Amino acid sequence: MKFQLLFFAVFLICMSCKNETKKTTESNMTNDTISLIERAKGIHERVITLDTHDDFNLKNFTDSINYSQDVNAQVTLPKMKAGGLDVAWFIVYTAQDTLTDAGYKKAYQSAMDHFDAIHNLVDKFAPEQIELALTSDDVRRIHASGKKVAMIGVENGYPIGLDINRVEEFYNLGARYMSLAHNGHNQLSDSHTGEEDNIWLNNGLSDLGEQVIAEMNRLGIMVDVSHPSKEAMKQMIALSKTPIIASHSSARALSDVSRNLDDEQLQWLKENGGVVQVVALDEFVNKTKMDERNKEIYTIQKEVADSLDLNWYASINEVMALAPLEREAFFGYYKKVINIANAKANKIEGFPPNANVSDLVDHIDYIVEKIGLEHVGISSDFDGGGGIEGWDDASETFNVTLELVKRGYTEEQISMIWSGNLLRVLDEVQAYAESQK
């Protein structure tokens, strides 16, 4: 009996010690987590966070409805403030159309409308909250003043038409990077989309495209290779006197889509001194995961769209084949449908997961290891297809910094990734232009 009592007492003491150890461990884990989050918040506050690709709907850039309000868009001034996103590159986007005078004229007008919208935001609608930057010094000055920063990129050189003088016109309006092509070959360059059928128009760049690269170098506009074909990228690097960027692409080794850069392209970019801005677009960060999810979620998305009396499509190819106005209408409501469908899907036990911030930072890790920390940055492609779990709009920007801190990146490294690398390329591009005057 005494032996039994002694055994029981020892057992209770051991259990007590075990429970105390568990409590201590949980307490330490909680403290460590809180400490990590607080450290990440401090870093996020101090570094300049810069997103190189934010599309927008012209309907949200009027005197009565604009980004000073929290309108139905992934990037607005309230969302930028909530998430600590400092710099948004607003995109002058025009869809690919026919290589005719009529097509060029229509695209040029669309480009001008987009430029006007951005200038109206910074000059008329919210000048006390946001200012246009043209240089890295502007970025730092505006950021120090407490305002948000707007910059301008051109997605698709198609609206240049056959008039190379429009490159300088775009530069004078604030464009500081430009992609020669988008989804479809044009008069300047082949697109990555040619990979699907192996049909090419220019075998890389056209003669006019080569002239445009030289003109961009002369003026100080960064060359963007996110949409042009691999051969076009190779030719651009050979021609360009300055480093290039991929404004919204990830690593193809981790997600096999034609818009991502393969290891050979990453090596070219390293040798050129450029930077790839890893993009928070679900399929681009984890195609395998999204293929599994999309098989299951399309039916839910279609049901949601039908309930809202909206058209829904089975693939991006179907969307890009739409007439420009239909395509613009789709991008105006697609995120609403996706968000409702995701909310429904996430309530289903065992439903395939979404791409997330961890997947995004996997690409940063891969590129850092492959070609070096100084060649990687971050983009979202918000309001143009981008958005992942954890960074679905600008208000969630902190989550990216938090994941970088979890992975062991230092404040200096995080600063380089968020903005330093991209601004370094901009400085080099502008220094070359200045040297040619």
What's the story with the biggest beta sheet? 9 strands, parallel
Q: CATH fold name of the largest domain, please?
A: TIM Barrel
How large is the radius of gyration?
24 Å
Strand content: 5-15%
Mean pLDDT, to the nearest integer, reads 92
Q: Please report the first level of CATH classification, the CATH class of the largest domain.
A: Alpha Beta
pLDDT below 50 for ≥5 consecutive residues: which ranges? Answer: 1-24
The domain tally reads: 2
How helical, in percent, are the residues? 40-55%
Q: With helices defined by DSSP (H or I, 4 residues minimum), what is the helix count?
A: 15
Helix-strand string: HEHEHEHEHEHEHEHEHHHHHEHH
Question: What would CATH call the architecture of the largest domain?
Answer: Alpha-Beta Barrel
CATH superfamily of the largest domain: Metal-dependent hydrolases
Total beta strands: 9
User: Which word captures the global form?
Assistant: globular
Span between N and C termini?
A: 100 Å
Overall structural class, as computed from helix and strand content, comes to alpha/beta
What would you say about this model in short?
The protein has 437 residues and is an alpha/beta fold. Helices cover 52% and strands 10% of the residues. It has helices at residues 2-46, 77-83, 101-125, 136-145, 165-172, 207-219, 230-239, 263-272, 282-285, 287-307, 316-320, 324-345, 357-371, 398-406, 411-435, and strands at 50-54, 87-93, 130-132, 148-155, 175-179, 222-224, 244-246, 275-279, 376-379.
